[in-house]
Design goal:
The chain is an alpha+beta fold. The protein has two domains: about 120 residues, 3-Layer(aba) Sandwich (Aminopeptidase), CATH 3.40.630.30; about 150 residues, 3-Layer(aba) Sandwich (Aminopeptidase). Strands 1, 2, 3, 4, 5, 6, 7, 8, 9, 10, 11, 12 and 13 form a 13-stranded mixed sheet that branches. GO terms for molecular function: acyltransferase activity, transferring groups other than amino-acyl groups. It comes from Starkeya nomas. This is N-acetyltransferase domain-containing protein.
Length: about 280
């Protein structure tokens, strides 16, 4: 291959390039995702340039000293098969250091990721459709709840603390959050956000199916008449049932894979994944 490859971090105002490329690949990221992603690890978004022109992107976001998440691994279509992606992949994993790393990859790449030490944990299924109108019911605005309740609940379904990301996610333009209280306990909560195609629900977290149903219906009401996208962890049968009950149909899937040991999470409480790009 001729030409000079350089690799550098993306600036905060450049992360939108990776998000735009993801949208072109059909991943349908949220419209405000870029601003939220940048707060986690400003050095975790990398760009490979060929003779000064963008050629490939990857993100390896370090959440804490033990865990990182890999996403946005995209090589420009006209430059694939030239070794640029491999160089960038190595740089991304070097940024993670000795941390365990998670990713959501398309099944076709599962064997390649396995060669790099990643093991399949489970599948995530993307569902989409246009459910019947919901209602707010007994749910409340997440902004009216103590952040500590939300952070503690998120800690049950994600393998690392991510307070800065959560605060950005909850307050991003167009993001609407609803929560369900049972006494002083947060029984369920979730966020719906605009995307190029419809609105995406994620995360959706609940202690049982009834709480998940109530929050889902509230988020559906907040989304108006737009189509809904929900990414469901396959090991949670109640989450699969909720999606199908509301007329959502599977459109594609990812393989959640990890390299290294990861703190166990309560998948039975996870009804909707936050993001395929950042976990």
């Amino acid at each position: 291959m001729t030409g000079t490859i350089t690799i550098r971090p993306l600036g905060a105002n450049e992360i939108c390039l990776a998000v735009d490329w993801a949208a072109q690949e059909g991943w349908n990221p949220g419209l405000a995702d870029a601003a939220c992603f940048g707060v986690v690890d400003p050095e975790g978004f990398l760009l490979a340039e060929l003779d000064g022109e963008p050629a490939a992107t990857i993100s390896v976001v370090n959440y804490d000293a033990r865990f990182a998440f890999l996403g946005f691994y995209i090589v420009r279509p006209d430059l694939r098969g030239r070794g640029i992606g491999w160089k960038l992949w190595q740089a991304g994993l070097a940024h993670a250091g000795g941390r365990s790393v998670g990713l959501d990859g398309v099944p076709a790449q599962q064997a390649n990721y396995a060669k790099q030490g990643f093991a399949l944990a489970y599948r995530n299924i993307r569902f989409a459709g246009n459910p019947a109108t919901g209602e707010a019911g007994d749910t409340v605005d997440l902004a009216d709840l103590p952040f500590g309740l939300i952070e503690a609940s998120d800690g049950e379904i994600f393998p690392a603390p991510r307070a800065a990301f959560l605060k950005a996610w909850l307050s991003a333009p167009g993001h609407i959050g609803r929560g369900l209280l049972r006494g002083d306990r947060l029984a369920g909560w979730g966020v719906v956000r605009p995307a190029p195609a419809g609105r995406k629900i994620g995360p959706l977290v609940a202690e049982d199916e009834a709480a998940a149903e109530a929050v889902f219906r509230a988020l559906r009401a907040a989304a108006g008449s737009d189509d809904i996208v929900l990414d469901v962890p396959e090991p949670n049968p109640a989450a699969l049932a909720l999606a199908r009950r509301h007329g959502l149909a599977p459109v594609f899937e990812t393989a959640r894979m990890y390299r290294g040991a990861v703190r166990p999470v309560a998948l039975e409480k996870l009804y909707g994944v936050t993001s395929f790009e950042l976990g």
